[in-house]
Amino acid sequence: MRIGLVAVLIVATGLLLAPIAGGGRPVRGVPVARRSAPPPPPVASRFGISSDYLAAAATPAGRQFASDVLGPHGRVRFFIPYDARGFYNGTQCAESPAYTAGATAWNALVAQLTRARADGLMPQIVFTTGTGLGGTPTVPDPADATQAADYSCGVDAALQALWAARQTTGMPVDVEAWNEPDMTIGFSSNVTGHGGCAAPATAAPSCSGSWRAAMLWYLAQTDANALRKAIAGFPPVTVAALTLGAPDKLQYLDAGHTTLSSPQGSVYPGYYQSLYEIVHCAKGFGGCQAPGTNPTNMPSDWAVHDYTDPTAQGTADLYQFVTALAQLNDRYAGGAAASVWITEAGVHLDSGNRQDANHPQGVTCHTPLGTSNTFGCLVDGNPAAQARGAQVWRALAAVAAPTSHGAVRVTQLFWYQFALAARTCTQSSPCQLANGVVYTSGQSLPFLHSWDSALVDSAGRPRASFCALTGQAAAACAGQSDAYADAYWVDWWKPMPQRCPAHFGAWVAYRADSGVPDGQECYYSPAVAPPSVVAQPVTP
User: Fold this and answer.
1) Integer Cα distance of 116 and 44 in angstroms
2) Is 480 helix (H, G, I), strand (E, B) or coil?
3) CA gap 318, 394 in Å, rounded
4) Burial state string for 445-483 with b = 16 or more CB within 10 A and e = fewer than 16
5) Cα 28 to Cα 9, 32, 36, 40, distances in angstroms
6) Structure confidence at residue 446 as a pLDDT band (50, 70, 90)
7) DSSP 97-115
8) How far apart are CA 350 and CA 140, in angstroms?
9) E strand or H helix that includes residue 320
10) Is 80 exceeded by the pLDDT of residue 514?
């Protein structure tokens, strides 16, 4: 069922709210008991970590990290499928199929938040790809009124439920609307069938990929504003815009108009310009459907991820990003100040990047694993470089750019991936590798990864980057400095090979079809196989 966008947004905003008790005013002449003001919430640290930290929080390394990096009330970031709690059932907001079918995602989040609260950590959440249960789209297209309502209802229900459970879970007041839209099919392109509109952007501005991502911020902040207005005591919730996958992707931010002298507007407007048009009620951009709760100003908080700078040993990428944002605020937002949340960053040992603002001519480095001249080979197996990268991570907190009435400054800085997981192979949970070997006798093998920016290796030993962050002597961090696994990435439109391609000096460990349209991987382990394992090396 499809209905008008105006009606959907009105339905989606706050429909699940119960009547507010205690309305009205005190009766004149009747004494009113004075209540003491509740204590102010604790002030969160500037520094944060990904949610995998919870599993290691009680370990010596976890406690050291909390003391020397996170500080009191350190932050921890959690992913949540946007439909984990609610969706639009065609008539109104309701409990989502993902929730009624067992609430797996929701219960997992509640358990994590409960643990974080017990550890004294301040939670924040980022909405991401839906579960797809019950036909709810994995990536909602806000150009479709019903899908816009799916997302809005999901945000509304999640925030209400978190507020109701706040004594157990705490109440996240820092939220991101969507994780890495520039890497999400539909938000990064106009491909029909992958979240794209049938009409081109020239006929309907709302069809550009960046418009969709901008609209999600607008919907999420509208929901948070409506709940604040309707529920007594509900806190102000700040929704950060953007959550860009890398700071050097300025084309996505503003369609390439990075200076004040650039022409205004574009056939395919960037995220910033799209959001400006939405907020200011431009025809065809879908804004201003719920007066009184819609945001009326550009966001005060913007999120970005930055692995390129720490891995490349510089801060030029982030500096370009904050400078571009400052220029855009001067041009479109009266020179307003803004905060930048770096919600993922770290030294990425298997980075495939080859060029950025720190190294505009590329890099020269060589590795036996076939990843020559990538940023990954600058740091993979190089403890000293990993330590320098951790120091650069610290330096990101000081990057800023002036606006005419303030500055764009980093106010949150997260490290992504605390520890690499290990897998124990047992009779009931065997490890079957692509070379035919099956492990069942309690071996503990590094869990296979296509991503490695961990501070602690899978055996629990801190790496060089950990010591650089905590101020310990390098000798205390003898964790494995090599990336555990590299992955051969197969794009979603290509068939998975029957046999994984040869990989320099490595042995094939695993072959996985992800089952989603983003991609699939062949995984490889380092050249040295685990002890007592008969491996089948592959050659170029």
Assistant:
1) 13
2) coil
3) 13
4) bbebbbbbbbbbbbeeebbbbbbbbbeeeeeebebbbbb
5) 40, 10, 21, 30
6) low
7) HHHHTT-HHHHHHHHHHHH
8) 31
9) helix 316-332
10) no
How many C-beta atoms lie closer than 10 Å to residue 200's C-beta? Answer: 14
How many Cα atoms occupy the beta-carbon half-sphere of 505 within 13 Å? 10
* pLDDT of 372: 82
Helix (H, G, I), strand (E, B) or coil at 185: coil
Average pLDDT over residues 47-58: 97
The residue written with tokens 């976890």 in the block is 62
Nearest residue to 159 via CA among 135, 127, 136: 127
Distance CA 142, CA 208 (A): 11
First to last CA, the chain: 54
Q: DSSP letters along 402-451, please? A: EETTEEEEEEEEEE---B--EEE--SSS-EE-TTS-EE-SS-EEEPP-S-
Q: With CA atoms as reference, report the closest residue to 504 among 314, 372, 337, 406.
A: 372
CB 468 within 8 A of CB 65: no
CA dist 399 and 126 (Å) reads 23
| Cβ atoms within 10 Å, residue 326 | 23
Name the one residue in this structure whose structure tokens are 């939670």. Answer: 123
Secondary structure E strands in 307-436: 338-345, 400-403, 406-415, 422-424, 431-432
- Least confident range from 25-39, 41-55, 154-168, 510-524: namely 25-39
Could you report the per-residue pLDDT of 250-275, keeping only the tens digit for each? 989 987 765 666 665 455 678 999 99
Contact between 244 and 177 (Cβ < 8 Å): no
The answer to pTM > 0.70 is yes
Calculate the alpha carbon distances from 57 to 221, 388, 472 in Å: 32, 24, 18
Structure confidence at residue 473 as a pLDDT band (50, 70, 90): very high
Higher pLDDT, residue 87 or 431: 87
d(CA 268, CA 261): 18
Asked if residues 537 and 528 have their Cβ atoms less than 8 Å apart, the reply is no
Q: What is the pLDDT of residue 246?
A: 97
| CA separation for the pair 346, 21 (Å, rounded) | 47
The Cα 320–Cα 276 span in angstroms is: 21
Share the mean pLDDT of the chain.
83
Residue ranges of the alpha helices (H) in 437-512?
A: 464-470
Backbone angles phi, psi at 105, to 5 degrees: -65, -40
Q: What DSSP character marks residue 456?
A: B
Residue appearing with tokens 């079809």: 513
For residues 224 and 282, the answer to whether their CB atoms sit within 8 Å is no
Q: What b/e sequence results for 98-107 when a residue is b if at least 16 CB atoms lie within 10 Å of its CB, and e otherwise?
A: bbeeebebbe
